[in-house]
Amino acid sequence: MSLDVNDLVIEIGGRRVVDGVGFSVAAGQRFGLIGESGSGKSLTTLAILGLLPEGATATGSIRLDGEELLGRPDRELAAVRGSRIGTVFQDPLTALNPLRTIGRQLVEPLELHGGLRRSERHDAAVRLAELVRLPDPERIVGRYPHQLSGGQRQRVAIGIAVACRPGLLLADEPTTALDVTIQAEILALFGRLVSETDASLVFVTHDLAVLSQIATDVLVLAHGREVESGPVEQILAAPRHEVTAGLVAAARATSWRPAEGGAA
Ligand SMILES: Nc1ncnc2c1ncn2[C@@H]1O[C@H](COP(=O)(O)OP(=O)(O)OP(=O)(O)O)[C@@H](O)[C@H]1O
Fold it and tell me: Hey, which family's this protein in (predicted)?
């Protein structure tokens, strides 16, 4: 599924926080949005989802497979979220409902968008738990979020995101809240699922080392504006802007590298 963002401008309280951002993600492409805190990455992804905070306005164009999303009524955007666009955010604990079992939450998108029958719930939940390699799938679907580790909770969030086989996955710092060894596993799992489902990916991070493991192309943002863009390898080898050079230096200083072959 392709995504084309053109001249996106987001204002909050009269302040322009995203200023003319544009990028294209081809079907099956893995694209990264990178920048320091406050550069406008999250608001850009929230605009794609139609989930901007109260008081924010967006102009420009956001097209999914050529279809304009900006300005569409919330009811229509709600149907797009979860079915055609899957999302994974930084903190899986706040993304999950503490009062519902893992199984119920895994199949919720299928119930909402795929017409899953009650009798199919358990098997569908176990299949998703297996897909994201949760331990003991038959048992874990009956547990609650607080009974799982942080990494397991993020696996659940990823299972929910891919449940309806969306054509686009949006991930906003999905490994940042996790411990370093778990980060590598989750990133490997995520990469595997993106390949297996042929989805396009928009991956948001402040960490170029993480991004280089999952995305092929990147847009660098600073203060709501594009700084530079291009293949990740090229940006890593020869950053043209000082903001990018800073991100490259930070990435080089990171000793972490993901497990070879994917520990997912
Ligand atoms: N709800 C809001 N109300 C007012 N200003 C906001 C709101 N959300 C974000 N902003 C401002 O918009 C700018 C861009 O924020 P955004 O969250 O998109 O940055 P970011 O690059 O995702 O940062 P981080 O990595 O810290 O999440 C920042 O200056 C931020 O202070």
Answer: Belongs to the ABC transporter superfamily.
